[in-house]
Amino acid sequence: MKALLERYRDLLARDDESFPITLGEGGTPLIHARRLGAEMGLERLHLKFEGMNPTGSFKDRGMVLAVNRAVAGGARAIVCASTGNTSASAAAYAAAAGLPCHVILPAGKVARGKLAQALAAGARLIMVDGNFDAALSAVRRLGDEGVAVVVNSTNPDRLVGQQTGAFEIVDALGKAPDALALPVGNAGNITAYWQGFGRYADAGHTPDAKLPRMLGFQAEGAAPIVRGEPIEAPETVATAIRIGNPASWHGAVAARDQSGGLIETVTDDEILEAQRMVVQLEGVFCEPASAAGVAGVRRLAADRRIGPSEVVVCVLTGHGLKDPDVVQAEEGSLTPIPPGFAAIRDAMGL
Ligand code: F0G
């Protein structure tokens, strides 16, 4: 398959721009969630599994464009603040580009797999005793002072690249879904998807030019947009969206209002329950933040705010392997038994 940026070149590229750096991002599966849908009373529920990107999250779609352009512009280093996935993606693309990469992370709040990814790829890690919002504000200043190219979603190339998620969904369904659900953290992705659906329709690539309702979900302890004010000390099990003052706040509100959609909260318990349901009913293992959109759709379907035959897509933003620590073993299931046939046969309980 052609590389993502080449595939949608007419909508992304400037003139004869070339994109030498690619890790095979995009082209992720859109999975018809039959069992999960049946459980929720939705016949046409789909999962866009962004965990299948090269570094296991949707960030690669925008990172590939941002890093290609950073290199073309003569950058000497890139930098980002991150709750984990942006840093994993930046580290990988910087490695492929031969660029130094600095990542500023909230100490103790980044999932183990994500930390390992950034370390393995040779990024310089700077852990701060503060949250993502504090780290991003320092990073913005580093960018303003020309120290390094910022590859957070404050970099417009990131959001342009992320629009490709919307393009792929329209290509796969032959039209836009009735509703698109996703988690909201720094609010870049909901902004990019909405812009992407709009651009694809304007370019004549969406047969009936219809646009979806955008359904965004924040964790209850990190829901600045829902509350209408920044949150000083955001907290949630879904560390990827542990953000109190999103950079793309206005973009998210525009996506919500222009699409006739909504942004609501889900609790940590609902998030973890949804994560379990997705993997145990569909075999798709996503990280907790990704399940926020599913948790929200589940509630809306139960409340009849989504109709049973509506086409609904939940974007599963990141892979479950990034955050293995949230998966709890059942009592006793990891306790060893003798290896003989009889004991094993007995333990199976069949
Ligand atoms: N899901 C996952 C898995 C994420 O990593 C993020 C954001 C989001 C959802 C929210 O997307 O910020 O565009 O609203 N992660 C960023 C990071 C903040 O640093 O990796 P958003």
In percent terms, what proportion of residues is strand? 5-15%
Q: How much is the average pLDDT?
A: 97
Largest sheet: 6 strands, mixed
Poorly predicted regions are none
Straight-line distance between termini: 45 Å
Instruction: List all distinct small molecules, including ions and cofactors, that are bound in this structure.
Output: ligand F0G
What can you tell me about this protein's structure?
β7 (about 180-185), α10 and β8 form a beta-alpha-beta unit. The chain is α/β, with parallel strands linked by helices. The strands form two sheets. A six-stranded mixed β-sheet has the order 1-2-10-7-8-9, sandwiched between helices. It has a four-stranded parallel β-sheet with strand order 5-4-3-6. The chain has 15 helices and ten strands. About 45% of the residues lie in helices and about 15% in strands. The chain has helices at about 5, 10, 35-40, 60-70, 85-95, 110-120, 130-145, 155-160, 165-175, 190-200, 225, 250-260, 270-280, 290-300, 340-350, and strands spanning about 30, 45-50, 80, 100-105, 125-130, 150, 180-185, 215-220, 260-265, 310-315. The longest helix has 15 residues, at about 190-200. α4 (about 60-70) runs parallel beside α5 (about 85-95) and α4 (about 60-70) crosses α8. The termini are far apart. It binds ligand F0G. Ligand F0G binds near residues 57, 183, 184 and 185. Ligand F0G binds near residues 59 and 84.
